[in-house]
Amino acid sequence: MCEASAYLITDGEPELIMEAVDVAIPTEEGELKLINIFGEQRFIKGAIESLSLVDHKIFIREAAGAV
């Protein structure tokens, strides 16, 4: 399987926010739209900081001022 787990970095620490992510799409509103293999969607105010393809991890840096 090629899905990844998405982690949101807040205060320097990664927190798991979604598993089995299949699609990560940047939106015009400055968010990331994450969709997993089950069709669940989540919008995150932030940007991809790094990817670990071997470990199947997506690290997302939270946008400044995001709630």
Short recap of the structure:
The chain is mainly beta and 67 residues long. The protein contains no helices and five strands.
Report on the architecture of this protein.
This protein has strands spanning 4-10, 13-26, 31-36, 41-52, 57-62. The protein has 67 residues and is mainly β. A five-stranded mixed β-barrel has the order 1-2-3-4-5. A hairpin with a 2-residue loop joins strand 1 (4-10) and strand 2 (13-26).
Could you give the order of the helices and strands? EEEEE
> Mean pLDDT across all residues, rounded?
93
Helical residues, percent: under 10%
How are strands sequenced across the largest beta sheet? Answer: 1-2-3-4-5
Uncertain residue segments: none
Count the beta strands.
Answer: 5
- End-to-end span in angstroms? 32 Å
Write the layout of secondary structure elements.
Blueprint: E1 4-10, E2 13-26, E3 31-36, E4 41-52, E5 57-62
Parallel strand pairs: 1-5
Antiparallel strand pairs: 1-2, 2-3, 3-4, 4-5
